[in-house]
Every structure is written in structure tokens, then in C-alpha cells.
Amino acid sequence: MSLEQIDAQHHSQCFACQSECSGLAYACKKCKHFLHKSCAELSYRIQHPAHPPHSLYIEVMQFPFTYYICGKEKKNTWIYECHECYGFQMCMKCHYAKIRPSIKYRYHEHLLCFIEEYSRYIAQCKASDNYCHQPVASDDLHHSTNSVFLCLNCDFKIHFICGPLPTNIKHECHVHPLILVDSVVEVNSDNSYCDVCELERNPRIRVYYCEECQYIAHPHCVISEIVNVFKGDLGGVKVKVIGQDFWDEPEEEWDMSSSLTLLDLLSSNHLTKDEKDTLSLWFKWDKSSKGEEDSEFEDIDEVIRYPFFNQHEFTSFFYKDFDRFCKEEALVVKSSELSVKIVRVQGYSIPVTLAPLLQTLLHKYPHISDDSDRTPAMKNICFFFLCKLINSMCTTRFADITKNLLREWYYYLTFVSLGGKFRIDFLMRHQEMVTRAFAGVQLARLETGIPKKIGKLQQEIAKLQQEIADLKDKEDICNKRLKSSSNPEFIKDRLRQGAELKWKTVGQVLF
Fold first, then answer.
1. Which tens digit of pLDDT belongs to each residue from 156-200?
2. Which helix (H) or strand (E) holds 209?
3. Cα dist. 309→219, 299, 306, 314 in Å?
4. According to DSSP H, which parts of 191-310 are helical?
5. Distance (Å, whole) CA 112 – CA 343
6. DSSP H/E element including 155
7. What CA–CA distance (Å, rounded) separates 264 from 509?
8. CB neighbours (10 Å) of residue 38?
9. Which burial class, exposed, middle or buried, applies to 263 when counting CB atoms under 10 A from its CB (0-12, 13-18, 19+)?
10. Which helix (H) or strand (E) holds 172?
């Protein structure tokens, strides 16, 4: 192969990295093989930040395979492969991109890589609070599902929109810096829009925002700048996770060196027999369990039955249902929660995903468990369910509350109050307020929802009536043609023949 100047218009492809070949490259025009000069000069053996324990070696892969980092499937190309770790194979594009684990995610013990174009489907996003498993998830999520945060040490992956993003960026789309916020609701508009793409957005999803100009951008609309941030020096870059806006506690690094998980916490040998019996009565956990999704809206007939006449009837109506739920049901702890690591916060053990919340809770209500005579192990469990409840409240908008969700919240409160003997009157009062507001939101939906539904049905009726009128016109035309035929006997013969042959095969009448 000779070193030549390759014109980009020839659309030649380098067989080492499988990207377009232009400029100086080695070429065999007879075989139509091309090789970048830079690829030809690659070292056979390298140390790469994506795989620091071992050296990587160039190999030629002729059979289809899937790259470990980017998840793409290719064949007949060069790779960097680890001879000691089976399955670690890195494409040349990932090598040139200098992908490295450099991003800190506060709820995971290893550093993460950011992959802009990841080809595999993520079956389960491991983010502590994620949008992708919510029933109200929207098209906003699908614009960036190919971008992921990936741990090279374990099977930990989270979607771009659910992961740790830079707290502020500077993008060419706007003159001022844009700040990452969990939500922006446009007060004077029923709909929310992105000022970059000018398409409607989901107000539940985090955005980049300029408060001075009221300028709002989808994260995927400014992803080019986010990629530039992650490719650079992250030493002074602050990142933020979903829900971090709710907590005013200082940044803290949690010690995640322990191998204990939530399952160990719930199965602690330090629980008394009475506490174990209480826990098994109220909750169950199954490693294969899956949470049920709620519908976004309550049934119209259900909302119509809500008693809005006075406070006593209203409260009695809901809380009788809540109490029945507590007596008849046992809530399931999701499988995704059982494997979460435990950390220590002010003497208590809590899943790392709830550690900031517990720290804030103990700061504002330091005596919440002073009256409890439960063991420290049981108090840990009560704090877990209490923080789980508060976290759910903090990430749920009034527009998204369902009756099933209210039942669950009341269930957790009742367990912590009776089973843990915690002082949570402030949360009980908050639950009552939320329940009243929920009913009001549902009633407001009826005021606008029923007329909309009626209007939609009327449109469907009008469409069906038009279809009926069109068919009647065609029926009239058909009848007129039959009656005006110059040979009515021919038509009768055809109808008779069609009726006789309808259920016979075409071949039957051949012989």
C-alpha cells in the first residue's frame, strides 16, 4: 500500500476505524483498501484510561462482535483488546475519543464514562430518581436515549437525562449562562416550550434555564456543549442529579466501601422478634418484583362520588379507604431498591440514594425519633420508609397524584407512626392537605375534561355520520345502475354464479 492524498469525495473508508478516509492515507486501489496514516502509526500495545488495570493490544476482528464501551456491533475492523479480561474490546473511535471514567455520580462508588452514541438498549436505568420509569414519561426522553453514563467496572448504566449533568453551561443559543434546574413552569401559559427547538416540552423534565431572560432549553438541544464539558478537564466542573434542588445540605461524600445493601438492612439480625413480625406484616420484598404503574387520571365516576360538602365527610371518605388499604394490603419493596448500598448518616444506616434527604430531615426535625423505644435496626428501617415517602412527595407534582399514591403515602406514615413510634404529626397534617388538594385537582380536571371528552365524541359522531352518508350515496348509485341495466338477466346470472361458487376453490371448477 502506498501513501497517497485521498479526496473526501471518493467516500473511502478506513478499514481500521471504519470512518471516512481523507487526506494522507495508505491505499490499495486495486483491493479498495484504505488506512489512515494515523491508524497505521498506532501503537500495538497501549495503556488506556478506560481500562487502567491491564494493557490493550491491537487485534483484527473478522467476525461480528459487540464493543464493550459503545455497544456497537461490527466486523472486519481493528480493535484494542485486553488479553486478561474476556470481553473487553474497544473500537478505534472510542480510543480516539479518549473515553475515560471521570464523572462522579454521588450514588455510585465508581466513576462513570459519558457515551454520546450508545448502541445497546438499556433495560433498566439505575439512576436513583429517573424519568424513564414514570408513567408520565414523554417524548423528551426519547431524544437522548442513545446517550448514556456507563460504569466500566460493573453493570451500571443511566440515561443522559437521568444522570449527573453540569450545573451550568454556556451555549451559542443564548447570550447568558444556562443553569440546570429540575423544573420550570411557565406561569402565563398552559403549555411549555423549549426556546431552542420551539417544540412543546414536558414541564416535569429538567431543563437548562436563564432566569433573567426566561429562556428555557431541552438538555438534548444543548447536548453539544455538555459533551464538550465532559471531554474537557472536569476538575472544577460541578454536576447535579435529579432532585438535588430539594435539599439544602452541603455537598458530602458518602462512604460506600461497605458491601451492605437495603436487603441486609431489612433482614437485620439485630431486630427483635416483635419487630420482625411487625415488618413482615406490613411489607414484603421479592427480588423479581415489579412496581405497578398508576394511570395519570382518576376515573370520572370515582371523582364524582367525592364528598365536597364539608370537611368531616370529605376526610372520612378518604381515610376510611386508606385505613382499609392498610389492613388488607402489604406493600412490596421494589427489586431495584434491594441492591442499593447502605451508608451512615448521623449514626443511622440509610440507602445512599436517600442520604441527603435524611441529613436534611434530621437537621430540621432532630427529635423525630426521641419517643421511639425501637432498636436502632428498626429505627433505620423506619427512616428508610419515611425518607422514601418524603422523596416521593418531593418528586411528585400535584397534577400527577393518584389515589393509589395517596394510599401508599398514608401506609408509610401509619407504619412509621405505629410501628416505629416516630413524631410525624407534621407529615400527617401535610398528608391531609395534599389529599384535599388532590380532590380539588381532580374536580378541576372534570370541569375541563368532561367538556373536552364530549367535544371529542361529538367530532367522532360527526365523522361517523359523514361516513354513513357517503355509504348511502354509494348504495344509491349501485341500486340505480342495477335497475337501469340493459341486460338484467346477465346481472341475475352473475349474482347466482357468485353465490354458488363462493366457498369452492378455484381449482375445483377446473376439472
1. 888 888 889 999 999 989 999 999 998 887 776 667 888 999 888
2. strand 207-210
3. 46, 20, 9, 7
4. 223-231, 262-266, 273-282, 300-304
5. 20
6. none
7. 77
8. 15
9. middle
10. none
Phi first, then psi: what are they for 470, rounded to 5°?
-65, -40
Angle between helices 376-394 and 273-282 (to 10 degrees): 20
From the CB of residue 299, how many other CB atoms can be counted at a distance below 10 Å? 11
**pTM score above 0.90:** no
- Grid cell, residue 72, equals 456497537
DSSP sequence for 156-182: -EEETTTS-EESEE--TT-SS-EEEES
Q: Of 79, 83, 78, nearest to 53 (Cα)?
A: 83
Determine the Cα angle at 99 with ends 239 and 143, to 5°: 60
Residue type at position 92: M
* Chain position carrying cell 451550568: 168
pLDDT (mean) for 355-364: 90
- Quick count: other Cβ atoms within 10 Å of Cβ 94? 22
Q: Which three cell numbers stand for residue 509?
A: 371448477
Q: Where are the alpha helices (DSSP H) in 105-251?
A: 223-231
Cell numbers describing residue 88: 473487553
Contact (Cβ atoms closer than 8 angstroms) between residue 41 and residue 14: no
CA dist., res. 172 & res. 400, Å (int): 35
| pLDDT digits 0-9 by tens, 404-448 | 899 999 999 999 999 999 999 999 999 999 988 888 887 777 777
Q: Which of 373, 341, 144 is nearest to 254 (CA)?
A: 341
Query: What is the C-alpha R_g of the chain?
Result: 32
The answer to whether the beta carbons of residues 245 and 182 sit under 8 Å apart is: yes
Average pLDDT, whole number, for the chain?
82
Residue 143 CB partners (closer than 8 Å, separation 6+): 218, 220
Q: What are the cell numbers at 46?
A: 497501549
Alpha carbons 179 and 170: distance in angstroms, whole number: 9
Residue 480 in 3-state DSSP? helix
Structure-block grid coordinates of residue 149: 453514563
Phi, psi of 258 (to 5 degrees): -70, 145
Structural contact between residues 81 and 75, judged by C-beta atoms closer than 8 angstroms: no
Please tell me the distance from the alpha carbon of residue 449 to that of residue 285, in angstroms, as a whole number.
38
Question: Any idea what DSSP says for residue 14?
Answer: B
The residue written with cell numbers 378541576 in the block is 444
| Region of residue 505 (phi > 0: left; psi between -120 and 50: alpha; otherwise: beta) | beta
For residues 266 and 262, what is the distance between their CA atoms, to the nearest angstrom? 6
What are the grid coordinates assigned to 115, written together?
457515551
Q: How far apart (Å, rounded) are the C-alpha atoms in residues 12 and 43?
A: 23
How far apart (Å, rounded) are the C-alpha atoms in residues 137 and 250?
30
